Amino acid sequence: MNELTRGLQNAIDYIEENLCEGLEISKIAARAYLSPFYFQRVFNATCGLTVGEYIRNRRLSRAAEELSRSDVKVIDVALKYCYDSPDSFARAFTKFHGISPSSAKEKGARIKSFAPLVINLTTKGGTFMNYKIVEKSAFTVMGKCRKFNAETSYVEIPKFWSEHYATGGGEIIRGMFGVCIDGDGKEFDYLIADLYFPWNDVADGCITKTIPEGTWAVFRYEGECPEALQTVNTQIWTEWLPNCKEYELAGNYNLEFYISETVGEIWIPVKKK
What pLDDT is attached to residue 121? Predict the structure, then answer.
């Protein structure tokens, strides 16, 4: 078991031990030896669902087990698994199981089971990842910025791009880069950006961000976006990173560099192990 695999499993074990507590992403990520920013990306790519979805699924699965085998009150189960009210619990429970919490208490009720994850990452043969390691000095970008939740970013960021061009934003910011910068672990800033030079004015509605000098792992993708980009992004976290013996993650940011409509690169900051 490599370090990343072990860290992910530590985080999952911690979630399982604390399902009835107020789980914080920073404390979960610490068990995996990753920042919240990277932990959520690694978890999503590796496990196929977000951290929040996993926690909700496990809580609702455990809640249904308790309701089906005991005389416990629905409100007590709702509070135990960190729901603010019986109504919010009932909505989530019904959406997940297809029946209400009270119906789950009836004999013979059909409920869904969602088992704890066990991480077992293995090297996959036959996959080529086109990447290079480069050194780059600090540079500054200017762009339109919006805050995104890690839970929904794969869906919402492409909408941000569509809105940017539909409203004429491409005349000001062409969109050479997509820049992800960590916020508080739950949310992050995303910029549709171009290079910025200090002798130019900052366009209305735009901000600037300086990306520090450092070492980058650069991965090329080819194909229609966002599918091609997201496919390579998933491969980075599930195939390249777990099996990389020379480099580890560095810095809570990463870049998308758009060369054309169908060719681009994903830049991940790294450092020697």
Answer: 61
Is residue 150 within 8 A of residue 187, CB to CB? The reply is: yes
CATH classification number, 131-272, choose in 3.40.50.720, 3.20.80.10, 3.30.413.10, 3.40.50.1820: 3.20.80.10
For residues 202 and 120, give the distance between their C-alpha atoms in angstroms, rounded to a whole number: 48
Sign of the dihedral defined by the CA atoms of residues 152, 155, 161, 164, in that order = negative
Assign domain 3-104 to its CATH architecture.
Orthogonal Bundle (1.10)
Q: pLDDT at position 126, please?
A: 47
DSSP 166: H
DSSP at 180: E
Ranges of the chain with pLDDT below 70 = 1, 121-129, 183-185
Q: How many angstroms separate the CA atoms of 27 and 17, rounded?
A: 13
Q: Note the pLDDT of residue 130.
A: 74
Among 116, 118, 187, 115, smallest CA distance to 152 is for 187
Strands 214-222 and 187-195, how do they pair?
unpaired
